[in-house]
Amino acid sequence: MDQIGLVDRARRGDRYAFAELVRASGARLDATARLILRDPELAQDAVQETLIRAWRSLPGLRDAESFDHWLHRLVVRACIDQIRRRRRRVIEVEVDPILEPVARDDIRHIADRDQLDRALARLEPEARAVVVLHFYLDQPLSEVAAMLGIPVGTAKSRLHRTLGLLRSSMAIDEVTSTPGLSPVTGGQLA
């Protein structure tokens, strides 16, 4: 059965149809939550919360064709709620590949990925969500804006500002991790 048919059956209370929909979307929801939250346990909580919200709110979904979009919007909101509830909790970064691992095991690539993960972890959840949805999940900015419930112009400016913050953060990391460079000027120490 196609997704629209499953959504229609699930809206009428068919748990098996809902389970099929979850099986089809579960991996992407988990990947999205892990990228935004940077913590596998919190990501599982957010996905669980998303599925509960989805089951309860599914009868009110007007357009069955927008189910995936609606579900991703729910998971992003659940992630942001998780972060807001746990602001003081230390976030451990675990790098999980979303796609197939790269064949080469280049030390520089690992260091760059680690530096990017540290920079992403410093971002506010709303900014991190825009980056994850746009660059990691290849969503166009119009879809990102719709998922986050913000205007497209706000999504564009948030992405632009966030990329600047990421560049600055990574540049500072580069300078502070390079021996012999001044963290203030970036030049050689005497």
Short recap of the structure:
This protein is mainly alpha-helical.
- CA distance, first residue to last residue: 70 Å
Instruction: Assess the beta-strand content as a share of residues.
Output: under 5%
Number of strands: 0
Helix content: 55-70%
- By secondary-structure content and strand pairing, the structural class works out as mainly alpha
Note the overall shape: elongated
Mean pLDDT, to the nearest integer, reads 80
Number of helices: 8
Order of helices and strands: HHHHHHHH
Question: Biggest β-sheet: count, sense, barrel?
Answer: none
Unreliable runs: none
Mind telling me the C-alpha Rg?
A: 19 Å
Description:
There is one protein chain. The protein has 190 residues and is mainly alpha-helical. Helices cover 68% and strands 0% of the residues. The chain contains eight helices and no strands. The radius of gyration is 19 Å and the shape is elongated. The model has no long low-confidence stretch (mean pLDDT 80).
